[in-house]
Amino acid sequence: MFTLPPLPYEPDALQPVVSAETLGFHHGKHHKAYVDTLNKLLADEGATPVSLEAVIKSAPAGKLFNNAAQAWNHGFFWCSMTDEAVEPKGELKAAVDAYGGLDKLRDAFIETGVGQFGSGWVWLVWEKDRLDIISTHDAETPVTRTGITPLLVCDVWEHAYYLDHQNDRKGFLTAWFDRLADWDFAAEQLAAAKGQGEGYRYPKPA
Ligand code: FE
After folding, report:
1. What is the mean pLDDT of each run of 10 residues along the chain (206 residues)?
2. Which residues contact 103 (CB under 8 A, 6 or more apart)?
3. All structural domains of the chain
4. CA–CA separation, 131 vs 124, rounded Å?
C-alpha cells in the first residue's frame, strides 16, 4: 500500500501563485485518486512491490504505469515548491552558471513548459554532468530513463493552474519559477546524483 504524502507546507503557503483551493483539489483529489487507483490495481494483482520506483520501471504502458508514475510525479512536485524564497547555491549555482545563467535556464524552463502540447510536466534534470530542461507527456517520468536525475518539476496539466491562471500557462510557469521553485530541494537531488546523500524516493523515508 502506498500512501498519500502530506504536503510539506500549509495549504495556503503558495498563494497567490497556487491558491489553497487549487492545492487542496490537486493534492486531496487528483493525487489521492492516483494513489488510491494504484493501490487497487496492485491489490487486484496480489502484488507487493518493494518500491514505487520499481512499479514504474516494470509496469507496461497503461493504467498501472499511469497511476504509479502520476503518484510519483506529484510527490516530487510537492517537494519542488517552497514558500521560502531560496536561490541556487554551491554546486547547483555552479551548474546553473555553466548552463549560461539563471535567466537562460528560466527562459528554457518556461518555453519548454509552454511548448509541452496538452498535459505533462516540465523538468530540470541532471544528465551527462550538466543541467537540462525536458518535458514529459501525460504521466511520463524521468524515473524510467537511465542516466537522468530529476532535480525539479512543474506540473503543466491544466488542473495545476486553471483555477488561478485560467489558460495562462506561461504566467503560471513564470510565477512558479520566480516564487516557488525550491532550489534547496534541487541541490539535494544534484548532490545525490553525484553520490552524496539520498535522492528523492516515494514516499520520502522517515
Ligand atoms: Fe497534477
Report:
1. 95 97 98 98 94 96 98 98 93 98 98 97 97 98 96 97 97 98 97 93 76
2. none
3. 19-206 (3.55.40.20)
4. 7
Kindly give the distance from the C-alpha atom of residue 46 to the centroid of ligand 1, in angstroms, as a whole number: 27
Question: What's the pTM value of the predicted model, to 2 decimals?
Answer: 0.97
**Which residues, 6+ apart, have CB-to-CB distance to 91 below 8 Å?**
187, 190, 191, 194
Residue 160 dihedral angles phi and psi, to the nearest 5°: -80, -25
CA of 94 to the centre of ligand 1 (A): 31
195: three-class secondary structure by DSSP? coil
Q: What are phi and psi of 148, to 5 degrees?
A: -120, 130
Distance (angstroms) between ligand 1 centre and the Cα of 93 equals: 28
- Residue 85 has what pLDDT? 82
Residue 162 has a pLDDT of: 97
